Automatic annotation (TrEMBL):
Free-text function comment from the UniProt entry: Iron-sulfur subunit of the cytochrome bc1 complex, an essential component of the respiratory electron transport chain required for ATP synthesis. The bc1 complex catalyzes the oxidation of menaquinol and the reduction of cytochrome c in the respiratory chain. The bc1 complex operates through a Q-cycle mechanism that couples electron transfer to generation of the proton gradient that drives ATP synthesis.
Principal localisation: membrane
Family assignment from sequence similarity: Belongs to the Rieske iron-sulfur protein family.
Cofactor(s) demanded: [2Fe-2S] cluster
Keywords of the record: 2Fe-2S, Cell membrane, Disulfide bond, Electron transport, Iron, Iron-sulfur, Membrane, Metal-binding, Oxidoreductase, Respiratory chain, Transmembrane, Transmembrane helix, Transport
InterPro entries the UniProt entry points to: QcrA_N (IPR045603), Rieske_2Fe-2S (IPR017941), Rieske_2Fe-2S_sf (IPR036922), Rieske_Fe-S_prot (IPR014349), Rieske_Fe-S_prot_C (IPR005805)
Subcellular localization(s) per the UniProt record: Cell membrane
Record-linked PANTHER family: CYTOCHROME B-C1 COMPLEX SUBUNIT RIESKE, MITOCHONDRIAL
Ranges that cross the membrane: 59-77, 92-112, 162-181
Membrane-related topology note: Multi-pass membrane protein
Protein name per UniProt: Cytochrome bc1 complex Rieske iron-sulfur subunit
Length: 359
């Protein structure tokens, strides 16, 4: 008995920490293991599995219908008509069709993975991967097992409806490419020629420059040094959307700036294209057609916000940075008898992206 008391006393003394801190000894953390597998209704009830499979391929076929509707809407509501009702309906119904097509594919794929594919948990120990024949054979076996478990090769209705939905979902995008440029017609032979369409704008000799969008004409005396004014041809303000307002504006928009006349670098053949330091350049970037509307007053640089092309206003809007391939087209200007700024002529080169001119 005395021996046991001495042993306990010795053990008590051995656990006294020298720093005065308590020491706690516990067992190592045990692996909680995976929770018990809970079967889904589709695992227990064949009828529920049948309903899930039917829902999946129904959603895939609904996606096909959405894609077909998007194509039909493109034809039923032609945006080329110029009618604002057709433009709105075109955007609305094509968007709804594409949204339905993609949403149905997503919902069906999620339902497939949650209700039909096996959801049993598997534990696989890590090991070094090797390029041996045995490893390759095992990889092939994994794909075969995955195919069998997913039912992709066995459930033909689900597989075929998925393939049909994916193929059909691309069709609206292919059809929409048709609208990138209208086709030529007997009454409008240049409709399908982008170079011809962009070579001429609404500007004519003597046409007044006006504020965008009010159409108020601009006096040269009202343009201050360092200012930048958004400009349209004055007659454009009176056009309606049905008369091609947006199409004409997209080509004819101009940015007007005033600098000190001595800051301008002008060749002899362009000496009369400006007026007392006032210059006008197309707002349509020569890269991909974004609006160039950011003017740095101190550096006299124009910046395109889309891809950061920069143009030097003092030197014929030449490209000094970015992907643009050529300078902005300059609109020749002067003043009329009343002091209003007017165009000398149309642009002398096509406006917009340079790739239209490439053959």
């Amino acid at each position: 008995m005395a021996h046991e008391v001495d042993a306990l006393e010795h053990e008590r003394e051995s656990w006294k920490p020298s720093s005065g801190l308590a020491v706690v000894v516990s067992d190592p953390v045990r692996n909680p293991e995976l929770p018990p597998h809970r079967e889904r209704m589709t695992d227990k009830d064949p009828a529920a599995m049948t309903r899930a499979v039917r829902t999946i391929y129904t959603l895939f076929y609904l996606s096909v219908a959405g894609s077909i509707w998007a194509i039909a809407a493109y034809m039923l509501f032609p945006i080329e008509s110029g009618q604002i009702v057709d433009i709105r309906a075109n955007n609305l119904f094509i968007g709804l069709g594409i949204a339905l097509a993609l949403l149905a594919i997503g919902i069906a794929a999620i339902h497939w993975s949650k209700a039909v594919m096996p959801d049993k948990e598997h534990v696989e120990d890590r090991h070094a991967t090797r390029g041996r024949d045995e490893t390759r054979a095992a990889a092939i076996e994994v794909f075969e097992v995955a195919n069998e478990e997913s039912g992709f090769g066995r459930r033909t209705m689900v597989r075929n409806s998925l393939i049909a939905a994916l193929v059909a979902s691309v069709a609206p995008a292919v059809v929409l490419f048709r609208g990138l440029a209208p086709f030529s017609t007997p009454t409008n032979p240049i409709a399908g020629d982008p170079v011809a369409l962009l070579s001429h704008t609404m500007w004519e000799p003597g046409m007044r420059l006006a504020h965008d969008p009010t159409g108020e004409p601009i006096r040269a005396a009202d343009v201050t040094i360092g200012s930048a004014v958004h400009v349209i041809p004055q007659p454009l303000a009176g056009l309606s959307h049905e008369d091609g307002y947006l199409e004409e504006k997209a080509k004819a928009i101009v940015l007007l700036m005033r600098l000190q006349p001595e800051d301008l670098i002008e060749p002899a053949d362009r000496a009369d294209w400006s007026y007392d330091g006032i210059v006008a350049y197309s707002k349509v970037c020569t890269h991909v057609g974004c609006p160039v509307a950011l003017y740095e007053q101190l550096t006299h640089h124009l910046l395109c916000p889309c891809h950061q092309s920069q143009f030097d206003v003092t030197d014929q809007a030449k490209v000094i940075f970015g992907p643009a391939a050529r300078p902005l087209p300059q609109l020749p200007i002067t003043v009329d008898a009343d002091g209003y700024l007017v165009a000398r002529s149309d642009f002398t080169e096509p406006v917009g992206p340079s790739f239209w001119e490439r053959h």
